Amino acid sequence: MAQQATEIESKIRGYILENLLFSDNAADLANDASLLEQGVIDSTGVLEIVMFLEGEFGLSIRASEMLPENFDTVDNMVRFVLRLQGTQ
Amino acid sequence: MCGIAGFFGQPAEREAMRATLETMIHTLHHRGPDGYGFHVGNGIGLAHARLSIIDLMTGEQPIRNERGTIWTVFNGEIFNYRELRAQLERRGHRFYTQSDTEVIVHLYEQYGDRFVEHLNGQFAIVVWDDERRRLLLARDRAGIRPLFHARVAGRLWFGSEIKALLAVLPERAALDPMGLVQTLSYWGPADPSTLFKGISSLPAGYLLAIEESGAETMTCYWDWHFPGSDEDGGSVEGPHRSIEAATEELRALLIDAVRLQLRADVPVGAYLSGGLDSSGVVALANRLTSTPTRTFAITFAEAEFDESTYQEAMVRHLGTEHTILRCTRRDIGEAFPQLIRHVEAPVLRTAAAPLLLLSRRVHESGYKTVLTGEGADEVFAGYDIFKEAKIRRFWARQPDSRLRPRLLQRLYGYLENSPVANAALAQSFFGKGLEAIGRPVFAHAPRWTTSQRALRFLSREMRASIGPWDPLSWYEQRLPPQIMSWTPLARDQYVEAKSLLTAYLLPAQADRAGMANSVEGRFPYLDHRLIEFANRLPARWKIRGLTEKYLLRRALDGLLPPQIQQRTKQPYRAPDQQSFFFDGEPLDYVADLMGSGRIRAAGYFDAAAVGKLVDKCRRGDALGFADNQAFVGILSTMLLDETFLRQRRAVEK
After folding, report:
1. Residues B147 and B35 both lie in one domain
2. Of the candidates B210, B104, B114, which has an alpha carbon nearest to the alpha carbon of residue B157?
3. How far is A51 from chain B (nearest CA, A)?
4. Residues from chain A contacting residue B432 (CB–CB below 8 Å)
5. Are residues B166 and B308 in the same domain?
6. Of B220, B255, B271, which residue sits at a domain end?
7. Are residues B342 and B491 in the same domain?
């Protein structure tokens, strides 16, 4: 379970660094940093993340789940993916 | 309407001075293809490139007063010139041309530096006073016509475009990092900044006086002014007894503005976007002329940008003689380098490029001047940003409300990837700036947060040379101190007028896109009497509920088909980064300029980060505003570098 979480975290971090921060520097992204606060994502940015998560982890994400608490930090996203994987 | 250039100081041989002027003015041939004019005196050189619109036979510039002691060159139109001439002749002044230009020298004789306050028009004016040995530079109130200047080697140099200065001052071809950072934040450099170190833009509504000693005095003769508000946010001064009276007055002003701006000795055409503003102008012009108006419009293949249904309705309604330019993504991508060559600054959107192509069609159709609807959204509060700010203020009164922010969904209906398509996220995004509620830049905080994405791509060296940069605070310290005494809408309108209209829309879309093809744009909504009238209106007559430009719609009632009169604002936009990628590959020049070699050599941006952005665009994943703006901003900066800066860098190495 922990290993799964680490893998998920790694993939999500990789995606955000590459596609939203355009950076190679892991230190640019803290797992608990609010991406909305920092202006890294706006609502179109979240759509991009949703598309990535659905594709990468084989999920189906409902509009009603597109809430800040599921997407605003790396930690939130990992938890969200784990929860959905448990049920899908 | 034209191009101007020249210098003051450091006398030299006539032939040398004339040669310098020729070098400068030939760079402005596109602004004035109908002939050149020169005046060379002791330590003074004035040059003019003419686009003949008023007084085709005798209106050549430079123009002088009776005794030849006052000279002028100017770019633009003085629409009330006939009335001014009549007044001046009654006072004994004698005219030798039929031009609008000539009123300038006589007004200066009569009123000195305050001559400019009598002008109703669009203009960049230079006046030379040979008796007092001083030079005056003046720009119109809204910032329609450009005027740049630089002080080098004991001379004050001026020109309509920066290229006229660079032709004789090549050492000034160096990027000003502050200009870049302002452009990436606010969409355009803030006057007097430009993208070039040591070259200044004369701000709109300003006069610059230069004495022979070199002493310079800057005077602001006009600014957007709003009345103070009372406690309920209503205007203290309410000159209108009723909305009916205001509607009547507005209608009369609109008719007069269009009437004045139809004055020309050549035919005047019009742009017809299909929106309320340009439709209103065309409807009024049609009533004032005996022949149907000649109209021009752009259509796009992508539905998100296209407005052709509305254009067709207007053409049918008015019976105009209409020309359509079909614009594809590729057309935009291919025209973009030429656009930047003219704009002389980076841009964050491609929307000016189709207008460049449209003006080419206008020119090929034999027209030199067109009326457009530019300015109505700033003056009458048409943009979504004003409604967005209204909703956010409403929400800020109860920040925990889940219901209030739902109103945001009424906005941005025309966007394919709308920032409000997801309600919860829209709330997070727009809610972020709620704590800025007490600040004059409240309305612009979300927009300037988005555009700041481009700043992430700056190189370490660039960031170091700029230092700490807070776009909100920097802009605030420029604002007039009394701004917080105005109504919230007035504050928002002021910031929009200065940061977007004057710094980006007028330079790129209104002036440069037209002048590149020798086409003069005319903007009745920016008649300063209209601006002053609108600025005195209570907010509820500009945005009523969530209906924008309320009073303007009332004033145009009966002139337009209902589908246009009631149409909600769809801002003019064009495809952005999609204009540069086809089948997953960038256009050749894009691949070259955005490649890591070029990016590194120029030094403005981080090559690795730019590479990732380019890859994202190539994959078709760059969906949002932030990425599109960053891409277009970086590409246009690299085009600026390629066109104006790279050669100089090579010389200095």
Report:
1. yes
2. B210
3. 10
4. 36-37
5. no
6. B220
7. no
Asked if residue B152 and residue B252 are part of one domain, the reply reads no
| Residue whose structure tokens are 């190189």 | B459
Domain that holds residue B148: 2-220
Q: Nearest Cα to A44, choosing from A81, A71, A17, A84?
A: A71
For B193-278, strand residue ranges (E) read 200-201, 206-211, 216-220, 268-271
Which of B565, B581, B614 represents a domain boundary (last residue)?
A: B565
B337: in domain? yes
Rounded Cα–Cα distance for residues A85 and B218 (Å):
67
Same domain, B492 and B505: no
Within 8 A of B453 by CB-CB distance, chain A residues are 39
To which H or E segment does residue B298 belong?
A: strand B294-300
| Within-domain flag for B582 | no
Identity of the residue in A39, A42, A48 whose CB atom sits nearest the CB atom of B419: A42
B619 reaches A (C-beta below 8 A): no
Contact B370, B271 (CB under 8 A): yes
Could you report the per-residue pLDDT of B77-127, keeping only the tens digit for each? 999 999 999 999 999 999 999 999 999 999 999 999 999 999 999 999 999
Whole-number Å distance between alpha carbons of B64 and B104? 9
Instruction: Name the residue facing B450 among A19, A42, A68 (closest C-beta).
Output: A42
Check CB contact under 8 Å for B613 and A22. Answer: yes
Of the pLDDT bands very low, low, confident and very high (cuts 50, 70, 90), residue B417 is low
Question: B306 and B443 share a domain?
Answer: no
d(CA A57, CA B302): 33
CA distance A46 to chain B (A): 8
CATH architecture of the domain formed by A2-87 = Orthogonal Bundle (1.10)
Count CB pairs under 8 A between chains A and B: 69
CATH of the domain at B52: 3.60.20.10
Cβ neighbours of B272 (radius 10 Å): 31
> B279 with B323, same domain?
yes
Task: Look up the ipTM and state it.
Answer: 0.86
Per-residue pLDDT, B423:
67
The count of domains in chain B is 3
* Binary contact (A43, B426; C-beta < 8 A): yes
Q: Which two tokens stand for residue B288?
A: 């004032």
Domain-by-domain residue ranges, chain A?
Answer: 2-87
pLDDT category, B237, cuts 50, 70, 90? very low
Mutate to test the interface with A, among B417, B422, B450 (most CBs of A within 10 A): B422
Contact at 8 Å (CB) between B285 and B558?
Answer: no
Shared-domain flag, residues B105 and B193? yes
**Which chain A residues contact residue B621 at CB under 8 A?**
19, 48
d(CA B7, CA B545): 53
Coil, strand or helix at B139: strand
